[in-house]
Amino acid sequence: MPTRPAQRVYRTWIIDSTRWDRYRPRPGDVVIATYPKCGTTWMQRIVDLLVFQTPEPRSIPLVSPWIDRRFPEPLDAVMARVEAQAHRRFLKAHLPADGLPLHDEVRYIHVARDGRDACLSFHHFASGFEAEMLAALEREGMADPAIDRPYPPLPADPADFFHRWLTEGVVPGDADGSPSMSYFHFERSWWEERHRPNLLLVHYADLKADLASEMRRVADHLGIAVPDETWPALVEAAGFAAMRREGAAIMTRAVGMLEGGADRFFHRGEVGRWRGVFREADLALYEAKLKATLPPACRRWLAEGRLRAGDPDRRH
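User: That's the sequence. What structure does it adopt?
Assistant: Structure tokens below.
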């Protein structure tokens, strides 16, 4: 039984949190939980490198299954693959902390990113969906009574998308986040769990600023020792340039989902790219939502990361 069961159900066109009801933990399992486009694949690759301790590319969707994704695999197939894994398992979730069962024997990693960058990155990502992907999203939305509507067309202008992301919700109780969940609630849910000893908070900006040190934090959190002679190759393989170069082998499912495949998936990976893109009124609304939802220390951490704003594990 989980230490704390899931407290809320999340359903969107892409995710269904109830799929985690089938999960049975093994001691040492790792769950990487992030808001979309906040460094999920990056952290999966980091954990992949630490677990296998070799730099060659591996298919992230195969070695690190995404349980809450509705398609293309039926749940039975996903869970059979999870149960068959003999290596230390590391699983992906795009769920707030209250949408997941939390287990003491599992290690959790939450990666956060400035919401403005995450939103802009998602716009670039979703604007490249192939017709097959859009058709699957349409089917899932219309088949689920909790959604019961087509997938919303993506505005061509990222500023228009940002406005909709700030003003329209999908999940009952969320006032924003469309077509995903509320970013503000998502980050608050993990911030409120930050003192759990089996949870590590990592920030996208810190990965960009000092990848080697952040990888050490992850390795320490997971109790993984890496030989000194192996370490440089693992850090190099976790860099954005290496991941982009090996993108077709790492993100094997990007082909057929996105125009441009893995090249589109691994786009720029920049910090602060939102500047000069969004309208001032919407930026003010973003700040107002942060202030209404999150404590000052969390807001500073989301905007700047641990290296600049301070350690989020301190009590505030």
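Residues 17-117+183-269+296-309 form a domain with the Rossmann fold fold (CATH 3.40.50.300).
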